[in-house]
Amino acid sequence: MKNIKVLGTGCANCKTTLKLIEDAAKTNGMAIALEKVEDLQQIMSYGVMSTPGVVIDGKVVHAGGVPDRSKIEGWLASPD
Length: 80
Prior knowledge:
Layout: E1 2-7, H1 12-27, E2 32-37, H2 40-45, E3 53-56, E4 59-63, H3 69-77
Parallel strand pairs: 1-2
Antiparallel strand pairs: 1-3, 3-4
């Protein structure tokens, strides 16, 4: 199971990213642990300066703007 964090203070792009990840996981029948991180100190601890940021298993894979669905599906499909 992948541990995924969406970093952002609650903007529309952050909510969209969270929903896209949920939908992609559900469509592909994948179990994920999805967490929304809104604490600015935590977000900055990952070195993310523009949100939304996406962290998978402790590694930042995206920062700034809404990732497209094919990119998200690629993250989910990659081995742990």
